[in-house]
Design brief:
Blueprint lengths: L3 E7 L4 E9 L7 E6 L2 E6 L5 H13 L34 H8 L4
Antiparallel strand pairs: 1-2, 2-3, 3-4
């Protein structure tokens, strides 16, 4: 996939603090749309891979102007959604070595 969606949730209140979308990862016209409440912040810059996109998201979350946390240490858990689990996984599962192997086996 050439996109990355994210949300930062305060689990105590189940409130979305920030959410966003990075589009066109690895292709021309990469863009990050970072939303906090009703405010939208747009970043247009080349993102050759998902590693760069994730760094940009993390930077946005702690940014002095439009960030919502002071540091990464405020994040206590991370969830990750993998869209294609092959024929084996049709619902949510905890990712372990067995699941990772099954997902890797889907790579052509």
């Amino acid at each position: 996939s050439s996109s990355l969606k994210y949300q930062l949730i305060d689990m105590k209140d189940e409130k979305v603090l920030a959410k966003g979308l990075v589009e066109r990862i690895g292709i021309d016209g990469s863009i990050l749309t970072h939303k906090v409440n009703d405010q939208k912040h747009i970043v247009k810059q080349p993102m050759k891979d998902h590693k760069i996109a994730v760094k940009l998201v993390l930077d946005a979350l702690v940014d002095k102007k439009y960030g919502v946390i002071g540091s990464m240490s405020e994040i206590s858990a991370v969830g990750h959604r993998i869209v294609h689990g092959g024929e084996k996984y049709a619902r949510s599962v905890l990712i372990d070595e067995k699941v990772m192997k099954a997902i890797e086996d889907c790579i052509p």
